[in-house]
Automatic annotation (TrEMBL):
<dbReference type="InterPro" id="IPR018087">
    <property type="entry name" value="Glyco_hydro_5_CS"/>
</dbReference>
<dbReference type="InterPro" id="IPR017853">
    <property type="entry name" value="GH"/>
</dbReference>
<dbReference type="Pfam" id="PF00150">
    <property type="entry name" value="Cellulase"/>
</dbReference>
<dbReference type="GO" id="GO:0004553">
    <property type="term" value="F:hydrolase activity, hydrolyzing O-glycosyl compounds"/>
</dbReference>
<feature type="domain" description="Glycoside hydrolase family 5">
    <location>
        <begin position="106"/>
        <end position="399"/>
    </location>
</feature>
<comment type="similarity">
    <text>Belongs to the glycosyl hydrolase 5 (cellulase A) family.</text>
</comment>
<protein>
    <submittedName>
        <fullName>Glycoside hydrolase</fullName>
    </submittedName>
</protein>
<keyword id="KW-0378">Hydrolase</keyword>
<feature type="signal peptide">
    <location>
        <begin position="1"/>
        <end position="29"/>
    </location>
</feature>
<keyword id="KW-0732">Signal</keyword>
<dbReference type="GO" id="GO:0000272">
    <property type="term" value="P:polysaccharide catabolic process"/>
</dbReference>
<dbReference type="InterPro" id="IPR001547">
    <property type="entry name" value="Glyco_hydro_5"/>
</dbReference>
<keyword id="KW-0326">Glycosidase</keyword>
Amino acid sequence: MSIAPAALRLAGTVAGLVLVAAQTTTASAAPPPRSPTPYTAAWSAPLSTQGRYIVDAQGNRFRLKAANWDGAQGSWTGSGSITDPANHHAGQNSNGIPLGLDRVPLDGLLADFHQLGINTVRLPFSNEMIHSTTPVPDNAVGANPQLRGRTPLQIYDAVVGALNESGFAVILNNHTNTSRWCCGVDGNERWNSGQSTQQWADDWVFMARRYAAVPRVVGADLYNEVRRDVLDDPNWGLGDSHDWYAAAQLAADRILTEANPRLLIVVEGINWTGVPVDGLPHGRPMLTPARTLSHTLVDAHKLVYSAHFYGYTGPHHSGATGVGETHDARYQDLTREQLAAALDDEAFFVEESGRHYTAPVWVSEFGIGSGETNAAARAWFGNVTDYFADHDADFAYWPLVGFAGHDDWALLRYDTAGHRTGILDSGDWRGAAWQHLMSAPSTTGPVAAVPVWRMLSTDHGDAVESLRVRATGDWDAGAYKAACPDGLRLIGLGHTTGRGLCTDAGAADLRSPDAGQTVVVDERYVPAGGDWASGYTKLQCPPGGFLIGYSLRGERLSAALCAPGRTPLSGTGRTVWFDRSDNRPSGAAGGDFAHGDYKGQCAENEYAAGIAFTTRFGSRPGPDALLCRTLH
């Protein structure tokens, strides 16, 4: 969400938060009403990923050409009377529902959205909205009297249903905890600011279930602009209560296993860490931590990463003026080349093919005001939209709807009589850049399948991403366990970090569909004369089996998890040692899946059939060698 540069507040505690008594959330769905204007879309749900691209149910590229229809996340700025529009962002009281329903009939809004050319709507909500039992005032839905008497969630239902019927893809976005304008130090800094991670994940399961029967609800955008509060930073992988990596992993797997396996899971990078004072560490990590620690979900084709870019912020600039302002460059201060380098470094490296982090990158927020007169800001908007066009990027403009005379950032602005102005008008200077972005050449049609590479991390707990393995229960009680997502096989291991690498390169889904799995804890499957790691303990799969997982007790290897192949597996073998140095094929795909550790990896035309380790004095007890066999 865009914030006024002066809105970042970095001292003192946040006061005056609106706390609404929670109602009990249930899993029952409230079927959204139909829109009066059905629309035949040229794509089919659900969406999934193929390398750096999002694809539809037919395997065709679906580029997210999106905008943010805000309001349901809240608009109150946190001070003064909540009933006074002057105390709401840009003087716009959203009443906790998507903006514009007081001014334009719902089908009229959707018709205008189609004129923009967008195909997707990012639809923010707050956790407070989910639990509110108070109907919105009648004037909040003045142009849509059929919505009178409904709670914010019920109106959200109606909006979701109308967007679905009109052919738009809908991505649910948990924007705030409280219904308050985001994104300074405002009590909404983290997913668990003012609530537990458990409650946050429970709310996500509730929302995903609620719209599971609405086909064009295609994604769950887990949380908006995770950032520092007064005292603490979020982190990516430390395993504590501020670990955004772990929280996103937890919520994503719960959504896919308990609520709706059809959804894309959108994980935004960390928006801000540190205190913005010259001389102290501070900046926007964005997606850079994914280089060495990326997410692996139970469905290897559902992960999308996202990032936000605004001209008045910067790689190390909070976007503030006055308090919180530093001498770091803003994005609008960068040359065209410097901006491209920053975008590559902070986000778009994720789209590099053949890496454990490879995924689509969605710039789910960017924008600028139609009244902007600063030449640098205007140049930035042209440069950033050119970059998105040249890189065939997925994007979502902020915001979609606003009030005339209030929010000149909005693509479409409506006065109290429902008359529209905005980027579709010839006088809007943003129009040329917008049209270039919307019409630039883009990949379309079928997207060829590419190998999947995913990492496993047992840094702070289990990483069992196979649904088939989960269904068998705890296969090594007391140990940290890791298993590749269904359809992938284990192909690499770290020596001391407990990290692993999974892939389907060279062979899609080797596992037999009707057989079980074997937990190997000793050398019983090592054949006579088959000592491929002399002097080391060898955990080898049964004949015809291959590695899909492993477990650790501390640093020590505990067990190997093997699955039988769907076809005979008996290729020639070789030993890949990695106890004293890296041992991966030249130019190996997958990337640095065990950063700072020695790594071993089989070739793409091989599968791993065994792991060797030692417990002799003075040696590390982690994996030392892999038995790699050819696939064919």
